[in-house]
Task: structure prediction
Amino acid sequence: MFGKRIKIKELLLSDNVNYQATVMGWVRTFRNNQFIALNDGSTNNNIQVVVSLGSLDDITLKRITTGACIKATGEIIASLGKGQKVELNASSIEILGDSDAEKFPLQPKKHSLEFLREIAHLRFRTNTFGAIFRVRHSLAFAIHDFFNKKGFVYLHTPIITASDAEGAGEMFKVTTLPLDGTAPRNEDGSINFKDDFFGRNTNLTVSGQLEGELAAMAFSDIYTFGPTFRAENSNTTRHLAEFWMIEPEMAFHDLEDNMNLAEEFIKYIIRYAMENNREDLEFLSQRLEEEEKQKPQNERSELGLIQKLDFVVNNDFERITYTEAIDILKECSHNKKKKFNYLIDKWGIDLQSEHERYLVEKHFKKPVILTNYPKEIKAFYMRQNDDGKTVAAMDILAPGIGEIVGGSQREERFDKLTERMKEMHIPTEELDWYLDTRRFGACPHAGFGLGFERIVQFVTGMGNIRDVIPFPRYPKSASF
Ligand code: ATP
Ligand code: MN
Result:
Protein backbone atom coordinates (compact mmCIF):
# COMPACT_ATOMS: atom_id res chain seq x y z
CA MET A 1 0.00 0.00 0.00
CA PHE A 2 1.57 3.23 -1.14
CA GLY A 3 -1.48 5.33 -0.33
CA LYS A 4 0.07 7.42 2.42
CA ARG A 5 2.64 8.95 0.11
CA ILE A 6 2.54 12.71 -0.46
CA LYS A 7 3.52 14.18 -3.80
CA ILE A 8 6.44 16.54 -3.58
CA LYS A 9 4.58 19.35 -5.31
CA GLU A 10 1.87 19.23 -2.66
CA LEU A 11 4.42 19.13 0.16
CA LEU A 12 6.29 22.15 -1.11
CA LEU A 13 3.12 24.18 -1.63
CA SER A 14 2.39 24.54 2.08
CA ASP A 15 4.63 25.76 4.85
CA ASN A 16 3.05 23.49 7.42
CA VAL A 17 5.66 21.81 9.62
CA ASN A 18 5.95 19.23 12.38
CA TYR A 19 4.03 16.38 10.82
CA GLN A 20 4.98 12.94 9.53
CA ALA A 21 5.14 12.35 5.80
CA THR A 22 6.29 9.77 3.30
CA VAL A 23 7.73 10.76 -0.07
CA MET A 24 8.88 8.61 -2.95
CA GLY A 25 10.91 9.54 -5.94
CA TRP A 26 14.23 9.47 -7.71
CA VAL A 27 17.44 10.81 -6.26
CA ARG A 28 18.78 13.78 -8.16
CA THR A 29 21.86 14.32 -5.97
CA PHE A 30 23.22 13.12 -2.65
CA ARG A 31 25.61 15.46 -0.87
CA ASN A 32 27.86 14.85 2.11
CA ASN A 33 26.20 11.52 2.86
CA GLN A 34 23.46 13.68 4.32
CA PHE A 35 21.35 15.71 1.88
CA ILE A 36 19.24 14.00 -0.76
CA ALA A 37 17.57 16.09 -3.45
CA LEU A 38 14.52 13.98 -4.30
CA ASN A 39 12.19 14.47 -7.26
CA ASP A 40 8.99 12.63 -8.17
CA GLY A 41 8.09 14.49 -11.37
CA SER A 42 5.15 16.35 -9.87
CA THR A 43 7.22 19.54 -9.97
CA ASN A 44 10.66 20.62 -11.05
CA ASN A 45 11.50 21.39 -7.44
CA ASN A 46 13.13 18.75 -5.28
CA ILE A 47 12.41 18.06 -1.67
CA GLN A 48 15.49 17.98 0.49
CA VAL A 49 15.57 14.76 2.50
CA VAL A 50 17.98 14.97 5.41
CA VAL A 51 19.63 11.79 6.64
CA SER A 52 20.92 12.27 10.16
CA LEU A 53 24.49 11.20 10.52
CA GLY A 54 24.84 7.69 11.82
CA SER A 55 21.17 6.81 11.40
CA LEU A 56 21.64 4.58 8.35
CA ASP A 57 23.83 1.54 7.91
CA ASP A 58 26.68 1.86 5.42
CA ILE A 59 25.14 -0.50 2.89
CA THR A 60 21.94 1.52 2.60
CA LEU A 61 23.92 4.77 2.46
CA LYS A 62 25.92 3.47 -0.49
CA ARG A 63 22.74 2.57 -2.35
CA ILE A 64 21.51 6.18 -2.28
CA THR A 65 22.91 7.10 -5.67
CA THR A 66 21.86 9.47 -8.41
CA GLY A 67 18.91 7.92 -10.22
CA ALA A 68 17.98 5.46 -7.48
CA CYS A 69 14.36 5.24 -6.46
CA ILE A 70 13.70 5.63 -2.75
CA LYS A 71 10.99 5.92 -0.16
CA ALA A 72 11.67 8.30 2.71
CA THR A 73 9.57 8.78 5.83
CA GLY A 74 10.09 11.36 8.53
CA GLU A 75 9.11 14.69 9.97
CA ILE A 76 8.51 17.76 7.86
CA ILE A 77 10.46 20.61 9.40
CA ALA A 78 11.22 24.21 8.47
CA SER A 79 14.30 24.32 6.29
CA LEU A 80 17.32 26.39 7.11
CA GLY A 81 18.70 25.98 3.62
CA LYS A 82 17.88 28.63 1.08
CA GLY A 83 15.42 28.08 -1.75
CA GLN A 84 13.03 25.84 0.17
CA LYS A 85 10.59 26.37 2.98
CA VAL A 86 10.45 22.82 4.27
CA GLU A 87 12.50 19.65 4.24
CA LEU A 88 12.03 16.08 5.38
CA ASN A 89 14.02 14.83 8.33
CA ALA A 90 14.24 11.13 7.48
CA SER A 91 13.60 8.54 10.15
CA SER A 92 13.60 5.71 7.62
CA ILE A 93 14.78 5.26 4.08
CA GLU A 94 13.96 2.32 1.88
CA ILE A 95 15.62 1.71 -1.47
CA LEU A 96 12.92 0.78 -4.00
CA GLY A 97 15.18 0.60 -7.04
CA ASP A 98 18.97 0.73 -7.23
CA SER A 99 20.78 2.73 -9.83
CA ASP A 100 24.37 1.87 -10.63
CA ALA A 101 26.19 5.19 -10.25
CA GLU A 102 29.00 4.05 -12.55
CA LYS A 103 26.64 3.34 -15.40
CA PHE A 104 24.02 6.04 -14.88
CA PRO A 105 24.03 8.09 -18.10
CA LEU A 106 22.97 11.45 -16.63
CA GLN A 107 25.73 13.47 -15.04
CA PRO A 108 25.24 16.63 -13.01
CA LYS A 109 26.57 18.59 -16.01
CA LYS A 110 24.47 19.97 -18.86
CA HIS A 111 23.64 17.44 -21.56
CA SER A 112 22.77 18.36 -25.12
CA LEU A 113 19.15 17.96 -26.22
CA GLU A 114 20.35 15.59 -28.96
CA PHE A 115 22.07 13.34 -26.44
CA LEU A 116 18.99 13.27 -24.23
CA ARG A 117 16.81 12.27 -27.18
CA GLU A 118 18.77 9.00 -27.23
CA ILE A 119 17.88 8.11 -23.64
CA ALA A 120 14.12 8.48 -23.70
CA HIS A 121 13.61 7.09 -20.22
CA LEU A 122 15.99 9.37 -18.38
CA ARG A 123 15.28 12.45 -20.42
CA PHE A 124 11.96 12.64 -18.57
CA ARG A 125 13.95 13.03 -15.37
CA THR A 126 15.70 16.20 -16.43
CA ASN A 127 14.44 19.64 -15.44
CA THR A 128 13.98 20.74 -19.03
CA PHE A 129 11.93 17.75 -20.17
CA GLY A 130 10.04 17.57 -16.91
CA ALA A 131 8.86 21.12 -17.54
CA ILE A 132 8.12 20.53 -21.24
CA PHE A 133 5.97 17.47 -20.71
CA ARG A 134 4.02 18.95 -17.82
CA VAL A 135 3.26 21.95 -20.03
CA ARG A 136 2.34 19.59 -22.88
CA HIS A 137 -0.07 17.83 -20.56
CA SER A 138 -1.68 21.10 -19.50
CA LEU A 139 -2.14 22.23 -23.07
CA ALA A 140 -3.81 18.92 -23.96
CA PHE A 141 -6.09 19.24 -20.98
CA ALA A 142 -6.92 22.86 -21.84
CA ILE A 143 -7.84 21.84 -25.39
CA HIS A 144 -10.46 19.41 -24.17
CA ASP A 145 -11.59 21.93 -21.58
CA PHE A 146 -12.06 24.67 -24.19
CA PHE A 147 -14.13 22.58 -26.57
CA ASN A 148 -16.08 20.86 -23.84
CA LYS A 149 -17.16 24.21 -22.42
CA LYS A 150 -18.35 25.21 -25.86
CA GLY A 151 -20.38 22.03 -26.31
CA PHE A 152 -18.21 20.43 -29.01
CA VAL A 153 -18.31 16.65 -29.39
CA TYR A 154 -14.89 14.96 -29.22
CA LEU A 155 -14.82 12.72 -32.28
CA HIS A 156 -12.40 9.84 -32.80
CA THR A 157 -11.60 9.64 -36.48
CA PRO A 158 -9.85 6.56 -37.89
CA ILE A 159 -6.10 6.13 -37.81
CA ILE A 160 -6.17 3.65 -40.68
CA THR A 161 -7.87 5.17 -43.69
CA ALA A 162 -8.64 4.13 -47.21
CA SER A 163 -8.83 7.66 -48.50
CA ASP A 164 -5.56 8.89 -49.87
CA ALA A 165 -7.16 11.60 -51.90
CA GLU A 166 -6.80 14.56 -49.63
CA GLY A 167 -3.22 15.28 -50.53
CA ALA A 168 -2.24 16.76 -47.18
CA GLY A 169 1.01 14.83 -47.28
CA GLU A 170 2.80 11.64 -48.25
CA MET A 171 1.26 8.61 -46.58
CA PHE A 172 2.53 5.52 -44.80
CA LYS A 173 1.07 2.30 -46.17
CA VAL A 174 -0.70 -0.20 -43.94
CA THR A 175 -0.60 -3.76 -45.18
CA THR A 176 -0.25 -7.39 -44.13
CA LEU A 177 0.84 -8.50 -47.59
CA PRO A 178 4.30 -10.09 -47.77
CA LEU A 179 7.13 -7.68 -48.51
CA ASP A 180 9.35 -10.30 -50.15
CA GLY A 181 8.03 -9.73 -53.64
CA THR A 182 5.40 -12.49 -53.53
CA ALA A 183 2.40 -10.20 -53.00
CA PRO A 184 -0.34 -10.79 -55.58
CA ARG A 185 -0.22 -8.57 -58.65
CA ASN A 186 -2.70 -7.20 -61.12
CA GLU A 187 -2.17 -7.74 -64.82
CA ASP A 188 -0.45 -4.39 -65.13
CA GLY A 189 2.06 -5.36 -62.43
CA SER A 190 0.64 -3.21 -59.66
CA ILE A 191 -0.08 -4.79 -56.25
CA ASN A 192 -3.49 -6.44 -55.98
CA PHE A 193 -4.87 -5.48 -52.60
CA LYS A 194 -7.87 -7.82 -52.80
CA ASP A 195 -6.14 -10.30 -50.51
CA ASP A 196 -4.77 -7.67 -48.20
CA PHE A 197 -6.17 -7.39 -44.67
CA PHE A 198 -8.78 -4.79 -45.55
CA GLY A 199 -9.23 -5.98 -49.12
CA ARG A 200 -8.03 -2.63 -50.36
CA ASN A 201 -5.16 -0.19 -50.24
CA THR A 202 -4.97 1.51 -46.83
CA ASN A 203 -2.79 4.13 -45.20
CA LEU A 204 -2.18 5.89 -41.92
CA THR A 205 -4.25 9.05 -41.71
CA VAL A 206 -2.79 12.46 -42.54
CA SER A 207 -5.84 14.29 -41.22
CA GLY A 208 -9.24 13.51 -39.73
CA GLN A 209 -10.92 16.44 -41.40
CA LEU A 210 -13.02 14.72 -44.05
CA GLU A 211 -14.46 12.31 -41.49
CA GLY A 212 -14.87 15.23 -39.09
CA GLU A 213 -17.01 17.05 -41.63
CA LEU A 214 -19.47 14.14 -41.67
CA ALA A 215 -19.99 14.42 -37.94
CA ALA A 216 -20.23 18.24 -37.98
CA MET A 217 -23.19 17.82 -40.33
CA ALA A 218 -24.94 16.05 -37.46
CA PHE A 219 -23.58 17.44 -34.18
CA SER A 220 -22.92 21.00 -35.41
CA ASP A 221 -19.58 21.28 -33.61
CA ILE A 222 -16.98 18.54 -33.28
CA TYR A 223 -13.25 18.31 -32.78
CA THR A 224 -10.67 15.60 -33.19
CA PHE A 225 -7.46 15.28 -31.22
CA GLY A 226 -5.35 12.39 -32.35
CA PRO A 227 -2.18 11.22 -34.04
CA THR A 228 -1.55 11.90 -37.71
CA PHE A 229 1.23 10.61 -39.90
CA ARG A 230 3.14 12.07 -42.81
CA ALA A 231 5.85 10.26 -44.66
CA GLU A 232 7.35 13.51 -45.80
CA ASN A 233 11.07 13.54 -45.88
CA SER A 234 11.39 16.89 -44.16
CA ASN A 235 14.29 17.14 -41.80
CA THR A 236 13.22 20.44 -40.31
CA THR A 237 12.77 21.68 -36.77
CA ARG A 238 9.00 21.90 -37.41
CA HIS A 239 8.12 18.55 -38.98
CA LEU A 240 7.59 15.12 -37.46
CA ALA A 241 6.50 11.92 -39.20
CA GLU A 242 4.03 11.27 -36.36
CA PHE A 243 2.38 14.25 -34.75
CA TRP A 244 -0.85 15.09 -32.97
CA MET A 245 -3.44 17.30 -34.50
CA ILE A 246 -6.55 19.05 -33.23
CA GLU A 247 -9.18 19.53 -35.91
CA PRO A 248 -12.41 21.31 -35.00
CA GLU A 249 -15.15 21.39 -37.60
CA MET A 250 -18.15 23.66 -37.18
CA ALA A 251 -21.47 23.86 -39.01
CA PHE A 252 -22.85 27.36 -39.55
CA HIS A 253 -19.42 29.00 -39.51
CA ASP A 254 -17.86 31.14 -42.19
CA LEU A 255 -14.23 32.13 -42.56
CA GLU A 256 -14.47 34.94 -40.05
CA ASP A 257 -16.20 32.80 -37.42
CA ASN A 258 -13.47 30.25 -38.03
CA MET A 259 -10.69 32.78 -37.43
CA ASN A 260 -12.40 34.10 -34.32
CA LEU A 261 -12.68 30.63 -32.87
CA ALA A 262 -9.08 29.73 -33.69
CA GLU A 263 -7.75 32.91 -32.11
CA GLU A 264 -9.86 32.51 -28.99
CA PHE A 265 -8.80 28.86 -28.75
CA ILE A 266 -5.08 29.55 -29.00
CA LYS A 267 -5.28 32.31 -26.42
CA TYR A 268 -7.31 30.13 -24.08
CA ILE A 269 -4.87 27.25 -24.02
CA ILE A 270 -1.82 29.50 -23.66
CA ARG A 271 -3.49 31.35 -20.79
CA TYR A 272 -4.32 28.03 -19.16
CA ALA A 273 -0.67 26.98 -19.24
CA MET A 274 0.42 30.37 -17.92
CA GLU A 275 -1.93 30.05 -14.99
CA ASN A 276 -1.23 26.41 -14.21
CA ASN A 277 2.42 25.92 -15.14
CA ARG A 278 4.00 29.13 -13.92
CA GLU A 279 7.08 27.50 -12.42
CA ASP A 280 7.73 25.32 -15.43
CA LEU A 281 7.37 28.26 -17.79
CA GLU A 282 9.68 30.38 -15.67
CA PHE A 283 12.23 27.59 -15.81
CA LEU A 284 11.88 27.28 -19.59
CA SER A 285 12.08 31.04 -19.95
CA GLN A 286 15.38 31.03 -18.09
CA ARG A 287 16.63 28.16 -20.22
CA LEU A 288 15.75 30.02 -23.39
CA GLU A 289 17.43 33.18 -22.20
CA GLU A 290 20.67 31.27 -21.65
CA GLU A 291 20.38 29.59 -25.03
CA GLU A 292 19.82 32.96 -26.69
CA LYS A 293 23.00 34.31 -25.15
CA GLN A 294 24.88 32.00 -27.50
CA LYS A 295 23.35 33.72 -30.50
CA PRO A 296 24.53 36.94 -32.11
CA GLN A 297 22.71 40.01 -30.78
CA ASN A 298 20.61 40.61 -33.90
CA GLU A 299 19.20 37.07 -33.82
CA ARG A 300 18.05 37.17 -30.22
CA SER A 301 14.37 37.67 -29.60
CA GLU A 302 13.35 40.96 -28.08
CA LEU A 303 10.92 39.38 -25.63
CA GLY A 304 11.48 36.69 -23.05
CA LEU A 305 9.29 33.58 -23.23
CA ILE A 306 6.73 34.70 -20.66
CA GLN A 307 6.61 38.23 -22.05
CA LYS A 308 6.01 36.76 -25.49
CA LEU A 309 3.13 34.60 -24.26
CA ASP A 310 1.69 37.55 -22.36
CA PHE A 311 1.84 39.63 -25.49
CA VAL A 312 0.11 36.97 -27.58
CA VAL A 313 -2.82 36.45 -25.21
CA ASN A 314 -3.35 40.19 -24.76
CA ASN A 315 -3.23 41.39 -28.35
CA ASP A 316 -5.29 40.82 -31.46
CA PHE A 317 -3.71 38.72 -34.15
CA GLU A 318 -3.05 40.65 -37.35
CA ARG A 319 -5.41 39.62 -40.15
CA ILE A 320 -4.40 40.21 -43.76
CA THR A 321 -5.11 38.62 -47.09
CA TYR A 322 -2.59 36.62 -49.06
CA THR A 323 -2.62 39.40 -51.67
CA GLU A 324 -1.72 42.03 -49.07
CA ALA A 325 1.03 39.76 -47.76
CA ILE A 326 2.52 39.39 -51.23
CA ASP A 327 2.53 43.18 -51.62
CA ILE A 328 4.32 43.63 -48.31
CA LEU A 329 6.86 40.94 -49.12
CA LYS A 330 7.47 42.12 -52.67
CA GLU A 331 8.22 45.63 -51.50
CA CYS A 332 10.25 44.82 -48.39
CA SER A 333 13.94 45.61 -48.36
CA HIS A 334 14.73 41.98 -47.53
CA ASN A 335 13.29 40.94 -50.89
CA LYS A 336 14.85 43.82 -52.77
CA LYS A 337 18.27 43.00 -51.31
CA LYS A 338 17.67 39.38 -52.40
CA LYS A 339 18.02 38.05 -48.87
CA PHE A 340 15.21 35.49 -49.26
CA ASN A 341 16.21 32.12 -50.70
CA TYR A 342 12.99 32.26 -52.69
CA LEU A 343 12.41 35.76 -54.02
CA ILE A 344 8.87 37.07 -54.14
CA ASP A 345 8.21 38.15 -57.68
CA LYS A 346 4.60 37.38 -58.44
CA TRP A 347 1.15 36.74 -57.07
CA GLY A 348 0.27 33.07 -56.87
CA ILE A 349 3.40 31.54 -55.43
CA ASP A 350 3.34 29.50 -52.23
CA LEU A 351 4.90 31.22 -49.24
CA GLN A 352 7.96 29.58 -47.77
CA SER A 353 8.62 29.50 -44.07
CA GLU A 354 11.21 32.31 -44.48
CA HIS A 355 8.43 34.58 -45.81
CA GLU A 356 5.99 33.61 -43.09
CA ARG A 357 8.60 34.30 -40.46
CA TYR A 358 9.47 37.65 -41.99
CA LEU A 359 5.85 38.70 -41.76
CA VAL A 360 5.39 37.70 -38.13
CA GLU A 361 8.83 38.37 -36.72
CA LYS A 362 10.04 41.40 -38.63
CA HIS A 363 7.03 43.14 -40.10
CA PHE A 364 4.09 42.74 -37.71
CA LYS A 365 5.90 41.35 -34.66
CA LYS A 366 2.81 39.38 -33.67
CA PRO A 367 0.82 36.34 -34.84
CA VAL A 368 -0.70 36.84 -38.27
CA ILE A 369 -3.74 35.24 -39.89
CA LEU A 370 -3.36 35.07 -43.65
CA THR A 371 -6.57 34.61 -45.62
CA ASN A 372 -7.86 34.05 -49.13
CA TYR A 373 -5.01 32.18 -50.77
CA PRO A 374 -4.84 31.40 -54.51
CA LYS A 375 -6.89 28.28 -55.12
CA GLU A 376 -4.01 26.61 -56.99
CA ILE A 377 -1.95 26.23 -53.84
CA LYS A 378 -4.74 25.05 -51.56
CA ALA A 379 -6.86 21.92 -51.08
CA PHE A 380 -9.90 21.02 -53.16
CA TYR A 381 -12.41 21.33 -50.32
CA MET A 382 -11.81 25.01 -49.61
CA ARG A 383 -14.67 27.36 -50.48
CA GLN A 384 -14.19 29.23 -53.74
CA ASN A 385 -14.43 32.98 -53.52
CA ASP A 386 -16.40 35.01 -56.05
CA ASP A 387 -13.23 36.39 -57.67
CA GLY A 388 -12.65 32.96 -59.23
CA LYS A 389 -9.02 33.05 -58.13
CA THR A 390 -8.91 32.62 -54.38
CA VAL A 391 -10.36 30.33 -51.72
CA ALA A 392 -11.59 31.07 -48.19
CA ALA A 393 -8.49 29.64 -46.52
CA MET A 394 -6.75 30.87 -43.41
CA ASP A 395 -3.33 30.04 -41.99
CA ILE A 396 -2.17 31.27 -38.61
CA LEU A 397 1.51 32.08 -38.42
CA ALA A 398 3.35 32.33 -35.11
CA PRO A 399 6.67 34.00 -34.30
CA GLY A 400 9.55 31.53 -34.24
CA ILE A 401 7.50 28.71 -35.75
CA GLY A 402 5.67 29.80 -38.88
CA GLU A 403 2.43 27.99 -39.65
CA ILE A 404 0.65 26.58 -36.60
CA VAL A 405 -2.89 26.46 -37.96
CA GLY A 406 -4.26 25.71 -41.40
CA GLY A 407 -7.97 26.01 -42.00
CA SER A 408 -10.76 27.15 -44.27
CA GLN A 409 -14.41 27.60 -44.88
CA ARG A 410 -15.40 24.47 -46.79
CA GLU A 411 -17.01 24.35 -50.23
CA GLU A 412 -20.54 23.26 -49.39
CA ARG A 413 -21.92 23.65 -52.95
CA PHE A 414 -22.00 20.20 -54.57
CA ASP A 415 -21.44 21.39 -58.14
CA LYS A 416 -18.58 23.71 -57.30
CA LEU A 417 -16.92 21.05 -55.17
CA THR A 418 -17.08 18.26 -57.73
CA GLU A 419 -16.00 20.61 -60.50
CA ARG A 420 -12.90 21.54 -58.50
CA MET A 421 -12.18 17.88 -57.70
CA LYS A 422 -12.23 17.05 -61.37
CA GLU A 423 -9.89 19.94 -62.15
CA MET A 424 -7.51 18.65 -59.51
CA HIS A 425 -7.82 14.99 -60.61
CA ILE A 426 -9.30 13.88 -57.32
CA PRO A 427 -11.38 10.73 -57.85
CA THR A 428 -14.96 11.61 -56.94
CA GLU A 429 -16.02 7.93 -56.77
CA GLU A 430 -13.57 7.22 -53.96
CA LEU A 431 -14.89 10.15 -51.97
CA ASP A 432 -18.54 9.48 -52.63
CA TRP A 433 -19.13 9.00 -48.90
CA TYR A 434 -17.76 12.51 -48.37
CA LEU A 435 -19.81 14.02 -51.17
CA ASP A 436 -22.93 12.72 -49.45
CA THR A 437 -22.50 15.56 -46.95
CA ARG A 438 -23.19 17.92 -49.85
CA ARG A 439 -26.15 15.88 -51.05
CA PHE A 440 -28.21 15.55 -47.90
CA GLY A 441 -28.55 18.77 -45.96
CA ALA A 442 -25.33 20.57 -46.74
CA CYS A 443 -24.63 23.73 -44.79
CA PRO A 444 -21.99 26.44 -44.64
CA HIS A 445 -19.22 25.14 -42.42
CA ALA A 446 -15.60 25.66 -41.57
CA GLY A 447 -12.76 24.20 -39.58
CA PHE A 448 -9.04 24.16 -38.99
CA GLY A 449 -6.14 21.97 -37.95
CA LEU A 450 -3.71 22.91 -35.22
CA GLY A 451 -0.47 20.96 -35.03
CA PHE A 452 -0.23 20.13 -31.35
CA GLU A 453 3.56 19.95 -31.22
CA ARG A 454 3.86 23.32 -32.94
CA ILE A 455 1.85 25.00 -30.19
CA VAL A 456 3.81 23.11 -27.53
CA GLN A 457 6.97 24.41 -29.19
CA PHE A 458 5.60 27.92 -29.14
CA VAL A 459 4.61 27.82 -25.48
CA THR A 460 7.79 26.12 -24.24
CA GLY A 461 10.12 28.11 -26.48
CA MET A 462 11.82 24.93 -27.71
CA GLY A 463 13.57 25.34 -31.04
CA ASN A 464 13.19 21.76 -32.25
CA ILE A 465 9.87 19.96 -32.54
CA ARG A 466 11.63 16.68 -31.69
CA ASP A 467 12.06 17.95 -28.15
CA VAL A 468 8.38 18.49 -27.39
CA ILE A 469 7.06 14.97 -28.10
CA PRO A 470 7.98 12.08 -25.80
CA PHE A 471 9.02 9.66 -28.54
CA PRO A 472 9.77 11.56 -31.74
CA ARG A 473 9.49 9.89 -35.13
CA TYR A 474 11.31 11.45 -38.05
CA PRO A 475 13.27 10.27 -41.08
CA LYS A 476 15.64 7.45 -40.11
CA SER A 477 14.54 7.54 -36.50
CA ALA A 478 11.91 5.47 -34.72
CA SER A 479 13.65 4.38 -31.52
CA PHE A 480 11.79 3.12 -28.48
P1 ATP B 1 3.70 22.95 -43.36
O1 ATP B 1 3.55 23.91 -44.49
O2 ATP B 1 4.28 23.56 -42.12
O3 ATP B 1 4.32 21.66 -43.75
P2 ATP B 1 1.07 21.96 -43.91
O4 ATP B 1 0.57 23.02 -44.81
O5 ATP B 1 1.55 20.69 -44.48
O6 ATP B 1 2.18 22.59 -42.93
P3 ATP B 1 -1.56 21.20 -42.89
O7 ATP B 1 -1.68 20.06 -43.82
O8 ATP B 1 -2.43 22.38 -43.08
O9 ATP B 1 -0.03 21.67 -42.78
O10 ATP B 1 -1.71 20.64 -41.39
C1 ATP B 1 -2.31 21.37 -40.34
C2 ATP B 1 -1.31 21.70 -39.23
O11 ATP B 1 -0.59 20.56 -38.82
C3 ATP B 1 -0.24 22.68 -39.64
O12 ATP B 1 -0.69 24.00 -39.51
C4 ATP B 1 0.87 22.39 -38.66
O13 ATP B 1 0.61 23.04 -37.42
C5 ATP B 1 0.74 20.91 -38.42
N1 ATP B 1 1.69 20.09 -39.19
C6 ATP B 1 1.67 19.82 -40.51
N2 ATP B 1 2.65 18.99 -40.86
C7 ATP B 1 3.32 18.70 -39.70
C8 ATP B 1 4.42 17.85 -39.40
N3 ATP B 1 5.04 17.13 -40.34
N4 ATP B 1 4.84 17.79 -38.11
C9 ATP B 1 4.21 18.50 -37.15
N5 ATP B 1 3.16 19.31 -37.37
C10 ATP B 1 2.70 19.41 -38.63
MN1 MN C 1 3.54 20.13 -44.94
